[in-house]
């Protein structure tokens, strides 16, 4: 099979996006000595609108549309995203081309005032831009206050100090990748604080019709990661949940070999009405479908919109 000698990877410009794209480039070069890999960077709507909460912008694919435009015109061969930012239904002509090995999917609590999340008192203000994180925290701690938090990872850490929040919640993977792990105060247990679909994974996107790229990608993809995130994305697609609703799904290998545990969360924005269940079995996609069936029967769609 003929493969391009020069592969162009499209990336956002944030430190995390660039880290992830360089990571993919390194994996590809290691798998294919002699392959030339180039990184093309661009801004997305989500990067430009840092002033407003993401859900209020309303559009889907806030961090992906410009990269998809570049894929459509072959200006890039592959777009590298945080999988969490990649909608579960892609625009026509675009396809999910796989994921390398996932990093931590957990949420991290960061505070300069408290030694762990459990020590945060009622009335404290926690900053997060995520509906899911807010709802999950409110469910257990209805007397916490919340502030919106936007911007790239460095900006958010600055805001923690400058705006005097009692703590912020961020993806553990982002802090690990940017070598800011030592900023983590504590990790939220994923059985209780169910992570976002695809959190901690890098998602590769390609144009339909460029199937020759699959042979180049094959050696850098991770089968267990793809099984897990595929199931999580089924859960999200069937519930029509995006990042603007309180939906979580985390599929993880169980202690018994061959078994998977699927953690599922759907709630109202205030966390009061909530469907929360973990189920174990040998087929991640089947677990996702069974949980969606049960959640729909229990009114998941109206709970998400409550
Ligand atoms: N929603 C923004 C976003 N998209 C991906 C990450 C971090 C990396 C990841 O979750 O894989 C973040 C920041 C965060 O959730 O704190």
Automatic annotation (TrEMBL):
PROSITE patterns: PORPHOBILINOGEN_DEAM. Residues 227-287 form the Porphobilinogen deaminase C-terminal domain. This is Porphobilinogen deaminase. Its EC number is 2.5.1.61. It comes from the Bacteria. The lineage of its organism: Bacteria, Deltaproteobacteria, Bradymonadales, Lujinxingiaceae, Lujinxingia. Belongs to the HMBS family. InterPro entries: HemC, Porphobilin_deaminase_cofac_BS, Porphobilin_deaminase_N, Porphobilinogen_deaminase_C, Porphobilinogen_deaminase_C_sf. Residues 7-213 form the Porphobilinogen deaminase N-terminal domain. Tetrapolymerization of the monopyrrole PBG into the hydroxymethylbilane pre-uroporphyrinogen in several discrete steps. The modification S-(dipyrrolylmethanemethyl)cysteine is found at residue 243. The porphobilinogen subunits are added to the dipyrromethane group. It catalyses: 4 porphobilinogen + H2O = hydroxymethylbilane + 4 NH4(+). Pathway: Porphyrin-containing compound metabolism; protoporphyrin-IX biosynthesis; coproporphyrinogen-III from 5-aminolevulinate: step 2/4. The gene is hemC. GO terms for biological process: protoporphyrinogen IX biosynthetic process. HAMAP family: Porphobil_deam. PANTHER family: PORPHOBILINOGEN DEAMINASE (PTHR11557). GO terms for cellular component: cytoplasm. The keyword Heme does not apply.
């Amino acid at each position: 099979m003929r493969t391009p000698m020069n592969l162009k990877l499209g990336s956002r410009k944030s430190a995390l996006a660039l880290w992830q794209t360089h990571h993919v480039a390194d994996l590809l070069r290691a798998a294919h000595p002699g392959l030339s890999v180039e990184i093309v960077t661009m801004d997305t709507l989500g990067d430009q609108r840092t002033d407003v909460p993401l859900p209020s912008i309303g559009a889907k694919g806030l961090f992906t549309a410009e990269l998809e435009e570049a894929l459509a015109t072959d200006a890039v061969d592959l777009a590298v995203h945080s999988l969490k930012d990649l909608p579960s239904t892609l625009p026509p002509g675009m396809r999910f081309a796989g994921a390398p090995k996932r990093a931590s999917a957990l949420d991290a609590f960061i505070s300069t005032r408290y030694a762990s999340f459990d020590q945060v008192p009622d009335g404290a203000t926690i900053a997060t831009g995520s509906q899911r994180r807010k709802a999950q925290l409110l469910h257990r701690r209805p007397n916490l206050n919340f502030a919106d938090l936007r911007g790239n990872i460095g900006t958010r850490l600055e805001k923690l100090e400058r705006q005097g929040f009692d703590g912020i919640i961020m993806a553990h993977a982002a802090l690990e990748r940017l070598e800011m792990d030592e900023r983590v105060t504590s990790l939220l247990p994923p059985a209780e604080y169910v992570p976002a679909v695809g959190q901690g994974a890098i998602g590769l996107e390609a144009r339909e019709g460029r199937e020759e790229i699959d042979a180049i990608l094959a050696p850098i993809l991770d089968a267990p990661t793809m099984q897990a995130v595929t199931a999580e994305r089924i859960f999200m697609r069937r519930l029509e949940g995006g990042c603007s609703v309180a939906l979580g799904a985390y599929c993880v290998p169980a202690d018994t070999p061959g078994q998977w545990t699927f953690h599922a969360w759907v709630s109202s924005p205030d966390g009061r009405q909530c469907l929360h269940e973990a189920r174990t079995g040998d087929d991640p996609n089947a677990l996702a479908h069974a949980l969606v069936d049960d959640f729909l029967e229990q009114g998941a769609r109206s709970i998400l919109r409550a």
